[in-house]
Amino acid sequence: SIAILLYLARKFKTPDHWYPSDLQKRARVDEYLSWQHTGIRGKGGKLFLTKVLLPLVTGQPLPPEKLEGVTEELNVVLKQFEEKFLQDKPFIAGSEISLADLVALVELMQPVAAGYDLFEERPKLAEWRRRVEEAVGKQLFQEAHEGIFNMKNL
């Protein structure tokens, strides 16, 4: 949860870029972390649930028109994310990676795991993903997402 991430960042005195002491940068992180519940998490999670988990439970695929609506909702928040949070910066809070970037990318990987490559036609988003992956390490990033990518193989 977000509360646990913030607790851990404070308790273990992580490097400043994760949860910046600079008030303006921290405000950007906090702003994203507050928005993401109904933004990226809400819409990305919904796509994953409706495309992967619901058919798994019911044994029935989702009607295409329902999936189209869920995908469009996600596209709206992706545009908001790019325009409001990424803007023209390398990361959400500026020039360094933060908890906001980690949380955002983890949530975006759910739709990707469901087969929706949301980075394909969004070069700004794809470049940001590349930067986040490089910052945490590609191998660690892949290990962290193994479970979600194996869900569709159930």
TrEMBL record:
**What is the annotated quaternary arrangement, including any partners?**
Homodimer.
Q: Specify the superkingdom.
A: Eukaryota
**Residue stretches making up the GST C-terminal domain:** 22-154
List, alphabetically, the SUPFAM superfamilies matched.
GST C-terminal domain-like (SSF47616)
Listed under GO cellular component are: cytoplasm
Gene3D superfamilies annotated for this entry?
1.20.1050.10
What molecular function terms (GO) are annotated for this protein? glutathione transferase activity
Reaction catalysis annotation:
RX + glutathione = an S-substituted glutathione + a halide anion + H(+)
| Protein location | Cytoplasm
Q: What is this protein called in UniProt?
A: glutathione transferase
Tell me one Pfam family matched here. GST_C
Q: Which family does it belong to?
A: Belongs to the GST superfamily. Theta family.
- Report the top EC class in one word: transferase
One biological process term from GO is:
glutathione metabolic process
UniProt keyword Transferase, yes or no: yes
Main localization is: cytoplasm
**Which keywords does UniProt give here?**
Cytoplasm, Transferase
**GN (gene name):** Gstt1_1
The EC code for this enzyme is 2.5.1.18
Q: What is the lineage of its organism?
A: Eukaryota, Metazoa, Chordata, Craniata, Vertebrata
